[in-house]
Amino acid sequence: MKPILRVFGYLRYYPKEIALNIVFNLLSVLFNLLSFVLIVPVIELFFGMTEPPAVEPAFGFNQGALTDWAMYHLYQYKESVGLWTCLFTFAGGYLVCVLLYDLTRYLGLYFLSPIRNGVLRRLRDDIYHKITVLPISFFSGKRRGDLISRMSADLADIEWSVVSTLQSLVKDPINVIVFAAALIFISPWLFLLFLVILPPAVFLIGKIGKSLKRNSIKGQEKLGEMMSTYKETLDNLEVVKAYRREQYRHEQFESVNSNYSRRMMRVARRKEAGSPLSEVLGTIGLGLILVLGGNAVLGGDIQASVFILFVIIFARLIPPVQAIVKAYSSLQKGSASALRIFEILDADERITEMPNAVVMTAFENSIEYRDVSFAYDNEKNDKTYVLDHVDLVIPKGKKVAVVGRSGAGKTTLADLLPRFYDPTEGEICIDGTPIKTMNINSLRRNIGVVSQNCILFNDTIANNITFGLKDVSIERIREAARIANADEFIMQMPQGYETPVGDHGSALSGGQRQRISIARAVLRNPPILILDEATSALDNESQQAVQKALDGVMQNRTSIVIAHRLSTIENADIIIVMDHGKIVEKGTHSELLAIGGTYKSLVELQNVSKK
Length: 611
What we know:
The protein has helices at 2-8, 15-37, 39-47, 63-81, 83-133, 136-140, 144-161, 166-186, 188-235, 237-242, 246-298, 304-345, 410-415, 440-445, 461-466, 474-483, 487-491, 510-524, 540-553, 589-595, 598-610; strands spanning 366-375, 385-395, 399-404, 425-430, 433-434, 447-451, 528-532, 558-562, 574-579, 582-587. The protein is of the alpha/beta class. The chain has a six-stranded mixed β-sheet with strand order 6-7-8-3-9-10. A four-stranded antiparallel β-sheet has the order 2-1-4-5, with no helix packed on it. It starts with a helix and ends with a helix. The relative contact order is 0.08. The model has no long low-confidence stretch (mean pLDDT 79).
């Protein structure tokens, strides 16, 4: 239940609402109990089951003394005002109690609403914030559909299984405590019968709860798998149709869907088993009370009207006990979802910022990779190095191209600079200051990234270019677009810069998406620019347009260009050739050709492929 307790930890933000909820729930229970107590005088008035005391008895806080005192004054009141006036008085009192019960019950729910919604809002905020600060390596081994499932289905499950039980967890225990106290006051020995059947009920309900939690965890995992299958199909629908694998994917989805449905069927059956079980055991207890209590009435040990009140209150005790059992089952089910949520919230933030981190205000001299090695983490904890003792100096204002075969470590080399990952060994410095000591936001503010897989959001072109920047004039946006060679095609669109780009920029061509991505980087005017194969996925015409834009962007900037098409980096100041995580060659285009090594073989391979 630790995950559930952590969810309830969010209640600390709502002390006033919780206090008011408890107060009004307590009042509603007391008014409810009082309405039942008023039934006894009516029974006495109608049927005259007992003779009132001849003289006024002393008032006392026990069942016998209090009953005699109440009966004496009741009969005195009836004699003074008449039977019907007395009945109307008690009927009016009963009606007032019911109205006050309903009012206080509503007020309890009224103050519960901000608690329920506030807890979920804070959970959603915390999850989203955590996702944005976790390192990219965290997501490399995760299925996106499962992460989406945690944000949606698991949170919804927490809402209905945990947060929605708050009213039951507050009101129903108060009900049980107050009603149980009333029963003990009326007849302690009859109440003991209820306690006799309580331990087996608790044991059986506990067994059901453990099974429920176990099946719920497996069910939520199956839901994540199903969401992943669904998302993969949506993201790759063209491939599915092109290879005519609609039926194949449907069979995969159907298999996961069936497994999930079977698992949730078990969860539902176990969840619903607790309430009937508690009702059966409660009914058994009520039956014993009726037999033994009826015998006590016949023997004169307890007044008939008092026994009737005991039975009524005991019958009213069963529903809140059932509600608590149901709430416990819901909490066990929600515990599985909470566990999955806190797996994300507790994930290690490997990219951490040092206390009193240095704010990077400008870039003055150079970027240095000092004996940098990097290995991705894996479950077996055996490290395969992607970068192996790399030493590199990039002077300010230089265009540095990084080339090599797939898997050589080119992208990893660039990703370490904005701290998407941290080196396993060695360090990276800017102007002699290790980037690990820098404020992360200020570091990334000075670095612009344009990748091969340019990401656009389902928004307007203008908002994609500004992306979070506020109060940016249309003149600045257009200037950035002109540098990125994008203003012309944007102005030809129906709504210009207010044209929606669609999901993932689906309304635009690859070249157009890339140029908008470049305009986004230009608008921030970073002194350092990383271009990760920004033209490799484009056709020749789009590639030329984008390359022209990139040439303009790289003017007076320090650029790290990861190149697939070697013809685009012939004019680079420095070309670095990587192989198996190491820098094997370094120089200008002409110098590397003269060496006749790896770079020359790569150039010749591309020239052959063009033929």
